[in-house]
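Agenda item 2: LWBT4IAB complex prediction
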Amino acid sequence: MIYVVEMDVRLPDTWDEDKVKSFMERERETSQKWQKTGKWKYLWRVAGRYSNISVLDVESPDELHEILSSLPLFPYMDIKVTGICRHPNAINENLL
Ligand SMILES: O=C(O)CC1=CCC(=O)O1
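Presented output:
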């Protein structure tokens, strides 16, 4: 199952520089771990916003939730999930 996931990051104003840095490092480690499994296919920054658009190919909604909720920033993101499937008129089958 393929999901497009948009994550809008909302860091608390009260966090100091060290705390932000620590979260960002752990976020990178965790998301790169999942990207290396091949399940997290794309990770793109949304231009001009502290947001990303990701594409994940997972077995189930439970697995998607496992991945997203493992991110250190999970409690600090608004996350929108959209399940997608092939369009019958698409001519390119090789994007993923
Ligand atoms: O978009 C961000 O910076 C938050 C994030 C999610 C996965 C990741 O590596 O960073």
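Discussion summary: The chain has a mean pLDDT of 96.
Owner for follow-up: CH.
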